[in-house]
Amino acid sequence: MHPSFMMYNVAMKWREVKRLLQREGFQVVKERGRTRGKGGHMLFEKNGVRTMLPTGSGELKPATMKSILEAIEEARDA
Questions:
Q1: What is the pTM of this model?
Q2: How many Å is the maximal CA-CA distance in the chain?
Q3: Tell me, what's the pLDDT at 74?
Q4: Beta carbons of 32 and 15 less than 8 angstroms apart
């Protein structure tokens, strides 16, 4: 695993993670709930690897970041 991905405990907001996923080549497959203004989720996919990004306010939890970063790594290996 890439050393920068070992730091999933770093606090990031969903918009920053969205940009990261897009830079890695992930495409938005589905969006839910953002039009109501209270947050929701975005589903991203690349090479058959899918990951969900919550779009509420605040920073993502470490476990969520770990899951997303593992999906990025898996898509790189695919």
A1: 0.80
A2: 37
A3: 95
A4: no
Q: What would the two tokens of residue 36 be?
A: 């109501």
The closest alpha carbon to 18, from 43, 48, 46, belongs to 43
The full length of the chain comes to: 78
Q: Residue for token digits 């770990």?
A: 66
Ordered structural domains, the chain, with CATH = 3-77 (3.30.920.30)
46 close to 25: Cβ distance less than 8 angstroms: yes
CA distance 32 to 37: 11
Contact 44/27 with Cβ under 8 angstroms?
A: yes
pLDDT bin (cut points 50, 70, 90) of residue 30 is confident
Contact between 73 and 5 under an 8 Å Cβ cutoff? The reply is yes
> Tokens standing for 29?
């497959």
